[in-house]
Amino acid sequence: MSWQPRWGGVKVAQSESTVAFSVAKNTSGSTVEEPTIEKETRSKQDVDLPWQVVVHNDPVNLMTYVTMVFQRVFGYPREKAERHMLEVHQKGRSILWSGMRERAELYVQQLHGHLLLATLEKTD
Amino acid sequence: MEICRKKDELEISELDPFLAELLRQIPASTNPESAPAAEERLFSPPAAASEKECCAEWKLYVQPELRRLFRSATETVAADLAQLSGNEKTFTNRTLRIPTQHADAWLNALNQARLVIAAKNNFTDGELCDHYRSPIGSRRDLSLFQVNFYGFLQEFILRELCGCQDNSSG
Question: Which candidate from B46, B147, B167 shows the least CB-CB separation from A119?
């Protein structure tokens, strides 16, 4: 299953930034390297707030099924997957993962593929 | 009804005509058409309504892929269920063999069917959690039985494949 994510066309390393240096001529005639203005070239994605993958309770989905899906999608060990499943069951929702938007979108897509109620939310 | 794993197959034997018919109804039960609540449940939004752009892109790019995925699972199940076709009028018990490599398709299709039936009938949490409900007395009771029966099959497949053993919903 594939999907062109929101920022699909923009592939930028998450913490990539560049610092611009220039060679300035000083008045004495010697050449000295002086740092000038630092230019941040971080994309909007880089400075974006983390996004959360939230799974909501659905009384139809079996608890064992939900646990299995968490294990498969996130690679969580059984115990961690069960803790999240119980949080969904008891509190109505659980934050399964948080991070960059593109990956969060992929997780939500996979969860929907398993018919779980999942949403993408911006971290406050 | 007997259900067990035999090497690379899950075998459901001693299927009486009633349960065989419920199994045959799985593909049709996954169809959410004419039930907006069911359609909405299978294709729920990926974010709050305020995230308009995200929801619009999701409809455009993801929903068609999800539809293909769900249809593929249903078609796999329908092909396996062909074992139960023919001789519908006989009352002899039947056997269904599901290749374990089709297990994911079965889990998906059974879940689709359960969600669609539950949405169409608007079952309450109480009804869904009542596994000791009285015998079938109405179409609604039959639908609830169907949801529970499909859940039982899901549970069996999960137990055989993953070693899961709980039988609750959540």
Answer: B46
Q: Give the list of residues 6+ apart from residue A81 with CB closer than 8 angstroms, or none.
A: A67, A68, A70, A71, A74
DSSP 8-state symbol, A56? E
DSSP A26: P
**Of B42, B66, B164, which has the smallest distance from its Cβ to A68's Cβ?**
B164
Do B47 and A121 make contact, defined as CB atoms within 8 angstroms? Answer: yes
Give the model confidence (pLDDT) of A40-79 as tens digits: 454 555 456 799 999 999 999 999 999 999 999 999 999 9
The CATH number for A47-122, chosen from 3.30.1390.10, 1.10.565.10, 3.40.640.10, 3.40.50.880, is: 3.30.1390.10
Tell if the CB–CB gap between B65 and A57 is shorter than 8 Å. Answer: no
Helix (H) or strand (E) holding A43: none
- Distance, in Å, from the CA atom of B116 to the CA atom of B25, rounded to the nearest integer, reads 12
pLDDT of residue B1: 86
Instruction: Find the DSSP H helices in chain B.
Output: 17-24, 26-29, 36-42, 52-57, 63-81, 103-121, 125-129, 139-162
Interchain proximity A63–B170, CB inside 8 Å: yes
Amino acid A44: pLDDT: 57
> How many separate domains does chain B show?
1
Contact B31, B116 (CB under 8 A): yes
| Contacting residues for A43 by C-beta, under 8 A, at least 6 apart | A10, A12
Residue B168 forms part of a structural domain: no
With respect to residue B169, please indicate whether it lies within any of the assigned structural domains.
no
What Rg do the C-alpha atoms of chain B give, in angstroms? 17
Positions in chain B whose pLDDT score sits under 70: 87-91, 131-135, 162-170
